Automatic annotation (TrEMBL):
Residues 86-110 are annotated as: Disordered. This is Protein-export membrane protein SecG. Pfam families: SecG. Keywords: Cell membrane, Membrane, Protein transport, Translocation, Transmembrane, Transmembrane helix, Transport. NCBIfam families: secG. Residues 100-110 have a biased composition (Pro residues). It comes from Salinimicrobium oceani. It is found in: Cell membrane. The chain crosses the membrane at residues 6-24, 57-75. The gene is secG. It is a multi-pass membrane protein.
């Protein structure tokens, strides 16, 4: 299993977790934190739930960005030629050997 495949699996997992955390939040201040009692005067840790969801969203988003950038580095070959793993293209290799010189063909009509 290549390093790129490992990064791809991690990216998919982090993206799924990020979707779940964002879907749990309510844009109007409710969400999971309002399910435990609702009011701002609640002492039982509702504010901490909102803080946890907010921090986990930022952490997962940052982790996703870092994983994407690191996976881009693993696509590069060891010799520095970028090869697309998705397209399967072959890198063009230039040859430094000159082509052989062909002698002129004899033309019997001259």
């Amino acid at each position: 299993m290549s390093t790129f495949t490992i990064f791809l699996a991690l990216i998919i997992i982090v993206a799924f977790l990020l979707i779940v955390v964002i879907m749990v939040q309510n844009p109007k201040g409710g969400g999971l934190s309002s399910a435990f009692g609702g009011g701002a005067n609640q002492i039982g840790g509702v504010q901490k739930t909102s803080d946890f969801l907010d921090k986990s969203t930022w952490t997962l988003a940052t982790l996703l960005l870092v994983l994407i950038l690191l996976s881009n580095v693993t696509i590069m070959d060891g010799n520095g030629i970028g090869e697309s793993k998705i397209m399967g293209s072959e890198p063009e290799v230039e040859s430094n050997v000159p082509a052989p010189i062909q002698p002129p063909a004899d033309n019997p009509q001259e």
